[in-house]
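Objective 1.3, modelling of assemblies. Example input:
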Amino acid sequence: MKRFLAFVKKEFFHILRDRRTLLILFGMPLAMVLLFGFALTNEIKNAKIAVLDLDHGPHSRQITDRLLSSGYFQLIQNLNASRDIEPAFRRGKVKLVVVFPPNFSQDFARNDTEAQVQLLADASEQNTAISLTNYATNIIQNYKSEQAPPGTVAPMQIDVQPRMVFNPELRGAFVFVPGVMAMVLLLVSALMTSVTIAREKEMGTMEVLMVSPLSQLQILFGKVLPYLLLSFINGCVIIALGVFLLGIPLNGSLLLLLAETLLFTFLSLSLGLLISTIADTQLVAMFASLLVLLMPTIFLSGFIFPIESMPRFLQFVSNIIPAKYFIEIVKGIMIKGIGLDLLWKPTLLLLGMSAFLMAVSLRNLKPRLNQ
Amino acid sequence: MDKAVTTHKLTKKFGDFVATDEITFEVAQGEIFGFLGANGAGKTTAMRMLCGLLTPTSGEATVAGYDVYTQPEQIKQRIGYMSQRFSLYEDLTVRDNIRFYGGIYGLSRAELKTKSASIIRELGLDSVADALVESLPLGWKQRLAFSVALIHDPKVVFLDEPTGGVDPITRRQFWDKIYEAAHNGTTIFVTTHYMDEAEYCDRVSIMVDGRIKALDTPTELKRTYGVDSMDGVFQILARGTSGK
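Predicted structure (tokens):
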């Protein structure tokens, strides 16, 4: 035990002496949370629009006012003819053009189904285009139903009233923070452990450790323990940032959340160990971690792209991405406030994956170091 | 049982390749035993089997009286090892390195304190005790690595080409340290391909293609082969040509 502690102490020295490691360890989560929380968001505010009003009637003016007072849009240009539309888009500033055809107000007053508004969106940014047309359509529909004389109901019209449960303001941070957490934990744990083990191999110190009375397990756990601790602290920092800075609710049990975080950290460390049994140099370890772990986590965990809209094959692959389950758990606990009674399935999957990975890396390690 | 190392027909195969082929030798307690051979002759493989880094394919071997198959733990506690890469942690200080290696061999706090003080004093490292190892000159690192390999007073210390890339004067100083350790009763098992170093050993074995071709004192070997240097002996054995 004393030997083991001497080893763990040395690992801490490595980490604390190395400014770059420290920076990655604690700077990265902060930068990512801030970046994803504030800068990268799919909410749209003050999108620049142009209006081509060929009607000049009261209704076109009022609808324009409604659009502009909603906070989503900002008028930067009044167009005079349809030939102005394309240049406006081309210059790249205008994201949406609202076109009121001639006689729009007259048609509208007659409650004519002929009354039409055209929305043109710059779909070179497809997500923005879809959101903007949705916002604008909603505002115009609202205006229409308000203006309808009482008692007259438009034929076959169903009044749809959506309500966004769990995240009424559609805040992007709710989605990103669990994803960032998964990413940072995975990166720090897996990358750091695999790199430090590869470094011992590269420096030749691994040989000396193997000759020493330290057992294989002591060496491995000595490597893993400091990172388990640091990653767990990291996870707590991200949770705290999310709750206090980004205003994400913590509706469920904090204890359960921390336990799940620890579980996921352990899983990431097992992945790191597995990589280190294959990689003999720090460079290989780094590339393996980035390519094999980070890329799939970003793209297939549902963190950025919804799993539901992936091709069937990728949906299948996403089932083996641990981050997918962790994100599901974190969202469940923090936002929905549900407990283990509903989350036992992903939790069990993570447990199983950790056990499997740990077993494989332990089995792999002995012959690798023996060469 | 006063033999530090014994082997009997010790063999290691990697697939079809026979790295060491039925080697048999004994090393006495306190002896400086030189293990010579060209690169790839099998000397590192043999040493690794004795250190417990590799499992032999067949044959027998004991180190410090313990069997390499059944008592690796007892062996590990009683041997020191220094690789050709000096195996110190460059990003830790001199003191940290000493304490770490002492720590993993289970030295007590008090022992660690006296040991690190005496190592630092003996090597004249007082001024750099808290400097990172990477800032030290190669010769200093080498002597530090050797002292660290001896920190737990091992019965046998294995040195795998310990003097690679070092100038002759530093090499000579290093050998002074080796003599000192041998004088204190530690058995030294050293591989090298510097023939001048072979002259410093009590006994030398020369390996060619996985087999021990000759094993005797340097004086005796030179007389047998009728040459006046170990280099001459090596030329005859390893290259099949007669050197001068």
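The interface with chain B takes residues 2-3, 5-7, 9-10, 13-14, 17-18, 203-205, 207-214, 370 of chain A (CB under 8 Å).
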